[in-house]
Every structure is written in C-alpha cells, then in structure tokens.
Amino acid sequence: MFLPLHDGVPLKNMKTPTGTRILLLICVAAYLFMFYGPLGPDATVAGFGLIPSVLFGTEILPEGFPFVPTPLTLLTSLFLHVSLFHLLGNMVFLWVFGDNVEDAMGHGRFIVFFLLCGGFAGLVHSLVEADSHRPLIGASGGVSGVVAAYLILYPRVRIWGLFLTAIPLRLPAYWAIGFWFILQFASAFFGTDDGVGWFAHLGGFVAGALLIPLMRHRYDPLLARIETQEMKAPR
C-alpha cells in the first residue's frame, strides 16, 4: 500500500551503513541459494524455515531436518524469501530505513537489533499459530522492528514513497508508517488467512519500539538538529 523510496536524512555518525548492507547481501545470497542452489526451495525452507509446530515439539520433521537446532530457525528463517517480489519489498524497506537506524546505534548493535526483532517476531507468530505446520520465512519481522525504531527516532522526517504502489507522495514518517502499521494490525486481526505472517510484523514492530531506547546512542546530534529545525520552520 505504501512503498518507501527515499527519506533524504544524511548519516551523521558513520560513513557507510555496513550492517544494513551485510543484511541485504545475506538475504540476496540466501535467495539465490534457495532457488539456484543444490537443495532447491522445498528442502531449504524445511531446513531453515520456522515451523511453529516443530518449534514447540508437536510435530517432527523427517530425519536430517531442520539443518540447524530448531530454536535457531527463529533467525535463519529471516533470510529466506518465497519470491523475488517478497525479497525486493523487504529489502526496499530495509534500505530506506535501516541506514538511519544503524546510524543511531552503530553497526554491531544494529545487526543484533535486527536479529532480536526478527526472532521475537517469529516467536509471536509461533505462539499465535502454535499448531501450524506452514513455514514462516522472510525478513519482515526484523524489518518491522527497524520501521518502529525509525518512527521513534525521526517521526517528522518526510518520506518519498508510492501510495497504492503508483501515486508518488511525500509524507511525514508518522503518517506513512502509521498507515503501514494500521494495515498490519487490521490484516492480523480482521483479515483472512492469506499466508502472510501479520502477527510476526506486529511482534517485530513492538520489539523495535521497546529496544530502540535501550540500543540507540545516548544522544543523537542529527535527531536533535532535525527537531530544532522543524520547531523553527513556519507552519
């Protein structure tokens, strides 16, 4: 419904968002491995995807699966995507919002933050869908945490994006992300079962909102400067 394209917020504490780029590269590499590697999509998803019923021990996969200890699928599932559209959608959000969130906390903390948000998102999804044998894959949970952190850090920054995937608009972050969150919430509680992990999106968003005050730098000079400029700007 709203695809972010550009925010124009410069980096203040670092030259290159290394953590964001590492996560992007891992997701792209995992996609290529999944569809062009020796295992194929089905085996890759069974080996690294998050299956709630398997996580809680009510079902057991065939011998040899998963490829990692079952709790680790909360993290490995973040880097798999079911289609090119699925991958590109998550990577655009991560690219637009990730660099500024990383700038507010540093490279290492940002990667840990992403993994914590994604892991919590997968856990929330699994608790809601405890008996499900449908694998959950995708970076959406971690990306949702990044989106929440961006909203808290830069609520009034104006973001260029495509509304309804076609109409270019420049909106304040609290409008663009607020609309996105309402869509996730409505889809989770009132939508039909379309195979999307909406509760994972909500879980990641909540985790991001809770973690960003703990993991950001104590003082963000860029944020302070932007807020000061906005307060002085004519209404």
Describe the 3D structure.
It comes from Microvirga puerhi. It is found in: Membrane. This is Rhomboid family intramembrane serine protease. One of its GO terms (molecular function) is peptidase activity. It is a multi-pass membrane protein. With 235 residues, the chain is mainly α. It is built from ten helices and three strands. It has a three-stranded antiparallel beta sheet with strand order 1-2-3. Helix 5 packs across helix 7 (140-153), helix 6 runs antiparallel to helix 9 (198-215) and helix 7 (140-153) crosses helix 9 (198-215). The longest helix has 22 residues, at 84-105. It is globular, with a radius of gyration of 18 Å. It starts with a strand and ends with a helix.
Order of helices and strands: EHHHHHHHEEHHH
Euclidean distance between termini CA atoms: 28 Å
Envelope shape: globular
DSSP helical segment count: 10
- The secondary structure category is mainly alpha
The share of residues in helices is 55-70%
- Main β-sheet, spatial strand arrangement: 1-2-3
How much beta, percentage-wise? Answer: 5-15%
- Averaged pLDDT, please? 90
Q: Low-confidence spans: pLDDT under 50, at least 5 residues?
A: 230-235
Number of strands: 3
Q: Compute the gyration radius: what is it?
A: 18 Å
Main pleated-sheet profile: 3 strands, antiparallel
Pfam family, one: Rhomboid
Keywords: Cell inner membrane, Cell membrane, Hydrolase, Membrane, Protease, Transmembrane, Transmembrane helix
Membrane topology: Multi-pass membrane protein
GO molecular function, one term: peptidase activity
